[in-house]
Amino acid sequence: MFNIRLEGKLPVYEQLYNGIASLISKGELSSDDKLPAVREVAKQLGINPNTVQKSYALLEQAGLIYSIPAKGSYVASEGVKDIIKKEALKNLESALASAYNSGIERAETIIIIDRIWGAEAK
Amino acid sequence: MFNIRLEGKLPVYEQLYNGIASLISKGELSSDDKLPAVREVAKQLGINPNTVQKSYALLEQAGLIYSIPAKGSYVASEGVKDIIKKEALKNLESALASAYNSGIERAETIIIIDRIWGAEAK
Amino acid sequence: MFNIRLEGKLPVYEQLYNGIASLISKGELSSDDKLPAVREVAKQLGINPNTVQKSYALLEQAGLIYSIPAKGSYVASEGVKDIIKKEALKNLESALASAYNSGIERAETIIIIDRIWGAEAK
Amino acid sequence: MFNIRLEGKLPVYEQLYNGIASLISKGELSSDDKLPAVREVAKQLGINPNTVQKSYALLEQAGLIYSIPAKGSYVASEGVKDIIKKEALKNLESALASAYNSGIERAETIIIIDRIWGAEAK
DNA sequence: GTGGTCTAGACCACA
DNA sequence: GTGGTCTAGACCACA
Prior knowledge:
Strand content of chain A: 5-15%
Low-confidence stretches of chain A: none
Number of strands of chain A: 2
Mean pLDDT of chain A: 81
Largest interface: A-B, 35 and 35 residues
Oligomer: homotetramer
Number of helices of chain A: 5
Strand order of the largest sheet of chain A: 1-2
Largest sheet of chain A: 2 strands, antiparallel
Structural class of chain A: mainly alpha
Helix content of chain A: 55-70%
């Protein structure tokens, strides 16, 4: 159900968190859509239900989803995308400031940006 | 002794961590340099010694400084700057990826970059 | 709730860390189990909440538990027992090597082992 | 001068600490023997002088050596071997207790012991 | 109620 | 004087 690749060295629950947040901001998951059950996701991705549970808990804590006990978890309604965007912006500013402080050059960050957004943006 | 401004909503111990890491990567603190005592920093910045202690503990854990009880804390020796830079790069890539995923435009990130690095870099 | 004795000269937060890790590897605490609240443990053991907080933070850092603010702390999911065992084995090998280097006799270590594991194991 | 191999994943300063402590307990370094200068050791082992400095500081703190500024560092006189042995014993007991707690079998520890002390001890 | 942060202040071992 | 540990107690955001 979830088209999410787990890879890299970040904690699995964090990758899953980011993956779901990404699906929401891309519009592949809309307000009030039901998320697949914790056990479902666990089985499909081959990870432990507790790990999925943790990601869901963090998503709820961040206001991106809401859970109704014994019913399921749903994408939150009010301006979810904005919440995600704001959170991402905050992290970005913090990471950019740290990068600047540690002597990383402006040019280096632009290279990463072009790689991610695609250089076509020229 | 430390020229560090504490502001914003990040935890104080985290700001202090970043501030000291920044001084190291800027070369204002070099390998072998002694850091001011925990209580010294606390008094100067008007914060609690425990908070400073926490920052120092995190810096030691990250390999940026080492502490000898009853002696003091010192900037670590082996490639400290590189450690800081690598850590910052990893955070940056992660934050940029999240930003992209959440629909932030390339132009928006450039604006932040210009604000931090200074637009003169043109 | 926790059946843990605090004694000896190791820091309290370390004894508590070891005690909880031990409960997990003995199976008295299983994946997904909720740990008693920080304040709860503090009251029961007669120690300060901050000290418990420190132990919980170290356990989380070691990947043995995970904490969700305003929810609680839970035993981590993936192979917690293995993590504990591996860590213990590493420490053991290191300590035994140091013991050998410092001239401790084989017989002396066996005496300690018999005291801990119980000589009945014969 | 020092016949010490640095390898494995322990911090270098810790390996150096253990190596020197081992030389002392084996009698290859005796009371009041002069240790090679920090820079000497650093050059010979290809590591940073600060790292050596840290090991020396820890050895002094542990009472194994004493340093006379501008003269050098010397192996301590009173019962150095006993100090090392006591410290090793303390670590050993702690590690064995953790091993027991985490479900490691008595037999497993004996295997390691035989490997280190040599099975000839039969 | 819960984890997390922070202050104020004490004590310890060690140099 | 120094790093480190600990108590007592407050406040915060969040559920």
